[in-house]
Amino acid sequence: MEELLVVIHDRADHSKRSLSIPFTLNDTVQSIEEKISTKTGISPDLLKVVLCGRALERTTFLKDLLLGPTTSLIAFIENRPSPSSPATDAKGDTPLVRNTPEIGSFYVWCKNCHDVKRAKLRVHCSACKSSAVLVKKEPSCWRDVMKSRQIEVNCADCNEASYAVFYFKCITCNEKGAVLSHIRGNWEHAECSVCLDEHTTYLFDFGCHHMVCRQCLYECLTFALKESRFVFRPPFGYTITCPYPGCE
Description:
mainly beta, Ubiquitin-like (UB roll), 3 domains, five-stranded mixed sheet, 3 helices, elongated, zinc-finger
């Protein structure tokens, strides 16, 4: 059975320790919390398991987290709430709910694989590079993850407010890759605007409501290179127009 590295942070005294937990991909966050509890004696109710700056739902399966061979989970020991004072949100009347972000809905160009690959989003503290962080808000747009100093985090290692640094890793080889923000996963089996193929894994979004498959984009680029059909569009420089007939 494989082992997963879990770094446990105690918020009371700012101490931390590492544990190796046996796991399978069918384990859930809840079962990992129970395994941590068995080894440490800490109640599962006091544990908050974190990945990529967000607390994970207890029903989340590890196989859905796209964990790499060097990926570790962070487990925070929370202060025990008073029985008469249940956890509430900012309005003070609704129990807090753990939210798991969508993980793995990105694409990168992976130099190691020499191909476009699905990617996973990861985050660390801008000050000390630690991954033991909690983001103060979830990224809502590409600017949040591609520009610096957009999302604040609380870092458990340097114990101060800092900013999130996001990066992307190939899910096949776990290497960092350049994110391709114009690629969309074709989860809904949308048709390519040119060839009408609906079985492609992902589509290229040209920002004009037309999306094309990889083969059609390749043919468009080949034609543009051969015929010098590039257009100048500041601030990007020379690029191609949408492959859809009549769309400029």
